[in-house]
Write a structure and sequence with these properties.
single chain, mainly alpha, 4 helices, about 0% strand
Length: about 140
């Protein structure tokens, strides 16, 4: 197996970007009078759940870009003879995974469609599956 080391500069970017997004969203919600630590309405719960899903998605996107970058770098420098193919397969797999996540969370939304928790249930589904995918990519590509 080829190790795909994460460069120190990338680690800082990966760690800081979702934190910056979370901070900006928290400020936006606070400006609107919403405390995501204690949402007091269905709307607040939905907005805060959507923010958490967005944060998870931002971290996944950063992790995915790092995995692709590592594959591209190793293919270019010749240290991995199959990395170009691996990158193509990763792109295909990620697109399929996005469709699976969206379909799965649409089913969760439909299951909850008669209640007020449908939006937050879908956002929670998206957050959970997205965090799982981020962990998978980190493990698979040694990020």
């Amino acid at each position: 197996m080829n190790a795909l080391p994460l460069h120190a500069g990338m680690a800082v970017t990966s760690a800081c970007m979702p934190a910056a997004v979370a901070h900006a969203q928290a400020l936006d919600r606070a400006a609107d009078g919403i405390d995501c630590n204690a949402p007091d309405s269905t709307l607040a719960l939905d907005l805060c759940a959507a923010d958490r899903a967005d944060e998870a998605d931002a971290l996944l996107n950063t992790t995915y870009r790092h995995a692709r970058s590592q594959l591209q770098q190793q293919a270019a420098d010749g240290s991995c003879t199959h990395c170009a193919d691996a990158e193509k397969q990763l792109i295909h797999a990620q697109r399929a995974w996005i469709q699976l996540r969206d379909d799965d969370c649409a089913a969760v939304y439909a299951f909850n469609a008669d209640g007020t928790s449908r939006n937050s249930a879908r956002s929670h589904c998206q957050t959970t599956l997205t965090q799982d995918r981020t962990r998978q990519l980190r493990a698979f590509y040694e990020l």
